[in-house]
Amino acid sequence: MSEVPQSAIDAYKATFGELRRKLVETLGTETIDLLLERAVREILDVHPGFRIRRDGGSVLILDWEDDPINNHSDEYIRTAFSALYAALLIILARLLGKEIAVRLASALDADLVLQGQQIAPA
Description:
Elements (H helix, E strand, L loop, with lengths): L5 H22 L1 H15 L6 E5 L5 E5 L9 H23 L1 H7 L5 H5 L8
Antiparallel strand pairs: 1-2
Helix pairs in contact: 1-2, 1-3, 2-3, 3-4
């Protein structure tokens, strides 16, 4: 299996960054940071590549750390990010209701993720 180019991972991270910015505008940085930490913990057993760290200040940064033994396919990375979106949206749906969670992330096909589908097409 070939390694996923860093540019593909960066593209997934950029898309995630757009979702995060949208959520921060609505709910605030502290709330979204807590939700992100919780979502990563929820999917860590299935997708252990996600890492959360803080930059020199207090900004939370999401990274993907590929397994050096098992190179992951693009589909695996896409599925991992879809799982992260789904975990975030499910947590939001529990807190705010499904309709509000979907509205907050509507530009990223959040309703499909809440129905169990992948966010990015294969």
